[in-house]
Amino acid sequence: MKAWVVHELGDPQQALQLDEVETPTPGPGEVLVQVEAAAANFFDILLCQGKYQERPPLPFTPGAEVAGAVIAVGEGAACSVGQRVMAMPKLPRGGFCEVVSVPASAVYPIPDELPWTQAAGMYITYQTAYYALHHCAKLQPGEVLLVHAGAGGVGSAAIQLGKAAGARVIATAGGPEKLQVCRDVGADVTIDYRTENFADIVKEETRGRGADVIFDPVGGDVFDRSRKCIAFGGRLLVIGFAGGRIADAPTNHILLKNYAVVGVHWGLYNKLMPQGVHEIHQQLMQLYLDGKVKPLIYQEFPLVDLPQALELLGTRKTWGKVILRP
Known about the structure:
Layout: E1 2-6, H1 12-15, E2 16-20, E3 30-40, H2 42-49, E4 65-73, E5 84-87, E6 99-103, E7 107-109, H3 116-120, H4 123-136, E8 144-147, H5 153-164, E9 168-173, H6 176-184, E10 189-192, H7 198-205, E11 211-216, H8 221-226, E12 230-238, H9 251-257, E13 260-263, H10 266-272, H11 274-289, E14 297-302, H12 306-314, E15 321-325
Parallel strand pairs: 8-9, 8-11, 9-10, 11-12, 12-13, 14-15
Antiparallel strand pairs: 1-2, 3-4, 3-6, 3-15, 4-5, 5-7
Helix pairs in contact: 4-5, 4-11, 10-11
């Protein structure tokens, strides 16, 4: 079978090599998945460059999100051949390949109504957003949710899940196209962070009260400005640092406005509470069947064009998810 392999670290165009490799055999507790779609993530670029927090031994195949059908089952794995699943392969055996062996604990059944491409782009982003909004922030109906980078994969998931929870959603994004994406997935108010001061607009929209929950995957200056428009008793969710700078959180300001700064480390939650992740998955599948959520797909590429897909993703001009099809 064909698989993209990193033999030496570098930019994806130089580091990735499409190799002919032996088709894996599932070991005890593993299942073999015929990959029908795989999602590209920004951290795949960092993995190729050796700049990610996890550095698998060389050689390795990146790719953390796949969807496909189970074609073989190892001893003790509670799956069945032919079952439609989404899965999170474990490094160094990632999902940018034709067939991947995955621990059964990281395999999640999906309904027939969910297309492969959307299933592949749903796992990390929707799990993270659901965990953040419901487990970490305890978002309530009628509250105001501010979502930064709303046109991105995790941001668009947060908008949809916020609306499904009964919140009023304000979203920030850069440029008219991305603002329209935010409106299309349900945002009540959109703000172009390039030309508008989102803190002022949030306070105007909430009559000075501010946002009850702020979903921030950007950090840096966005985090600093978010503190100016959070409501008394609000929850500021730290999702990531796409802006590059890690901001400080002045404790005197946290005390005076009585808000919480909450870290959202879904990856660790996945390791410590795998049953909780499976329960979230069940909730997400029901929300999909109810028409409350639908993953956004920016573009599909054939698997052989993975370096070009990651190059596009690296420009940060995309919205939603970039998907590879074998």
